[in-house]
Amino acid sequence: MRYPSFDHFFITLGNKQRVKMLQLLNNEGPKSVSSIAKALNAEQSAVSHSLQQLLQCHFVAVKQDGKERIYSINEDTVAPLFRQIRKHVEKYCIEGCEHSWGSKKEVSYGHKRQTA
Amino acid sequence: MRYPSFDHFFITLGNKQRVKMLQLLNNEGPKSVSSIAKALNAEQSAVSHSLQQLLQCHFVAVKQDGKERIYSINEDTVAPLFRQIRKHVEKYCIEGCEHSWGSKKEVSYGHKRQTA
DNA sequence: ACCTCATATGAACATACTATCATATGAAAG
DNA sequence: CTTTCATATGATAGTATGTTCATATGAGGT
User: Fold this and answer.
1) Quick one: which of A2, A13, A45, B107 is 20 to 30 A from A107 by CA?
2) Could you tell me the domains of chain B?
3) Measured between alpha carbons, how far is B54 from A22 in angstroms, rounded to an integer?
């Protein structure tokens, strides 16, 4: 593997499971591995693997709590990043976009692309 | 054509080639398919395939110009998005990169169970 | 020390993705 | 309407990626 590069950050975000995990942590706050797994109906090991990738990119942070390890989202940079993506999605995503980001307006139909 | 889902936007960004294309268009302005291919040392068809995906997510737009098709980046949302990611990268990649790999603890553990 | 719960890790497998090739479509020019 | 240049599209081979299974490691309790 390589050190996280500019591309790496995007690549790490380019996966449903990992995005869902970030969404979950973003919406519901810090969680343990097993409770993430339960919430997403996923295997513990799969969740753990994904979390390692998110850790490498510093999208999340961990802290130990007894036997559990509590993962939390990086508020400083990830939240704004998501806000930016959501902005794009809200503008261009047509229909059937099942997005469960924190805040959201109604999805409007039709492109709002401005012509050059 | 399928409408992009929320995840699609991330997934589309999760590819070096496509990110490079966006960076190119972002830095050097609108370009034709063949000139993108040349700039990135890539095959014409590969570039075209990638452009279709970027189009679907409205990360780029096209306009016909004679025989050529000129692709341009979506300034409104993509540029800010990149700025946001770069901010994160600058904060966590430079120092954090090496660290995230080197920081794996290599503690010797007390007990080792043997394989059954 | 042992046991148990919680998490991490490695390897193997299944799947998804990209790059490539061949070819089709489209646009201008003669 | 044929040719040529530019781009798009479909099929597919090759590769990367995620998922799963088995098991190791860690922490806390008894």
Assistant:
1) A13
2) 6-74 (1.10.10.10)
3) 23
**Rg of chain B, C-alpha, whole Å:** 20
* Residue that is written with structure tokens 């510093």 in the block: A58
Portion of chain A with pLDDT greater than 90, in percent: 57
A9: nearest CB among B61, B72, B89: B89
Query: Could you give the CA distance from residue A1 to residue A63 in angstroms, rounded to a whole number?
Result: 25
- Euclidean distance between CA atoms B89 and B85, whole angstroms: 6
For chain C, which bases have at least one atom within 7 A of a protein Cβ?
Answer: 5-11, 17-23, 26-28
Task: Write out pLDDT tens, residues B55-73.
Answer: 999 999 999 999 999 999 9
B11 touches strand C (CB under 7 A): yes
State how far the Cα of A20 lies from the Cα of A26, in Å rounded to an integer: 10
